[in-house]
Specification:
The protein has helices spanning about 15-25, 35-50, 60-75, 95-100, 115-130, 140-145, 145-155, 160-170, 185-190, 190-200, 220-225, 250-255; strands spanning about 5-10, 30, 85-90, 110, 180-185, 270. The chain contains twelve helices and six strands. By secondary structure, it is of the alpha/beta class.
Length: about 280
């Protein structure tokens, strides 16, 4: 069976699990939360490229075959119906050149959200688990207050900061035409309008999804992180406006980082409240 690979990436708490939960309703599609493939890809590359004693023994073509094999072998036991595979990782936006060389016809879908609301969502999850020291923070210096928690998540090598930097790299890259950016607010409030555009971008025949019965949960994974409910998707898709629980100055610091709203200098496709090119 020939498998087609696409990738889900973007910012945390921005609808990537929701999108995967919707897509996996299609019997031809496999999709889910973040998989180990990104980590396997990075570790394989590290062991056969510069810095490794074995790098001189491995040609570029061998590296390409090894990395393609990570995907093929990880997904080889899927049901034969699953012709289209969506692998999810925040890493993929930083690996666009490699992905497009390995899978030239593949697409990357990046889910986004105003960063201030991402921080609000992460802080909300932290407060919902007051008797748990989440693994999102390394020590009490990072964990102590809402200011230290948000600033830690925003660092360039941490959960939110890395994803934002990787997305910005992809957005302005030579491969940006293969990138689709989807705003969480629109996905959660009007999935019936967003999904046909996703199928159009992928070049796949449309499937009638049931937006009233979309479910996903990974309680064991979330428990291991110490953040219960992090990947839970409610059955009925709905956008729920709310007041932020972040202090006003902290919210303001992160509220003007939505670079994807200005598409000048980028070939990326963007689905926002204002229709843009597909």
């Amino acid at each position: 069976m020939t498998q087609t690979f696409h990738f889900i990436s973007g910012l945390p708490r921005s609808g990537s699990t929701l999108l995967a939960a919707i897509l996996k309703q299609n019997p031809r599609f496999h999709a889910g939360m973040s998989s180990p493939v990104g980590a396997l890809f990075s570790s394989t590359l590290a062991n056969v490229s510069a810095g490794s004693e074995f790098s001189v023994m491995v040609s570029k073509e061998q590296r390409r075959n090894l990395l393609r094999g990570v995907f093929n072998n990880f997904y080889q036991d899927l049901d034969s119906q699953k012709e289209v595979i969506f692998d999810t990782s925040r890493l993929w936006c930083s690996k666009m050149p490699a992905l497009m060389e390995l899978f030239p016809q593949s697409k990357v879908i990046a889910c986004v959200r105003n960063v201030a609301w991402i921080m609000d969502s992460m802080e909300r999850k932290f407060r919902e688990n007051p008797f748990e020291n989440t693994r999102l923070f390394n020590d009490d210096v990072e964990r102590n207050t809402v200011y230290s928690r948000v600033d830690t998540l925003g660092q360039r090598n941490r959960m939110v900061g890395f994803a934002w930097s990787a997305l910005k790299e992809a957005f302005y890259s030579e491969q940006a035409a293969s990138l689709l950016v989807i705003d969480y607010e629109l996905l959660s409030s009007a999935p019936e309008k967003v999904l046909p555009l996703v199928y159009q971008f992928l070049g796949e025949p449309y499937f009638e999804h049931d937006f009233e019965n979309v479910e996903y949960d990974a309680p064991d994974f979330d428990a291991a992180l110490g953040v219960a409910g992090l990947h839970r998707v409610r059955p009925k898709i709905a956008f729920e406006p709310r007041a932020t629980l972040l202090p006003p100055d902290l919210f303001s610091n992160y509220s003007d980082m939505s670079f994807w709203l200005n598409q000048e200098g980028s070939r990326a496709n963007v689905i926002t409240v204002t229709p843009t090119k597909i």
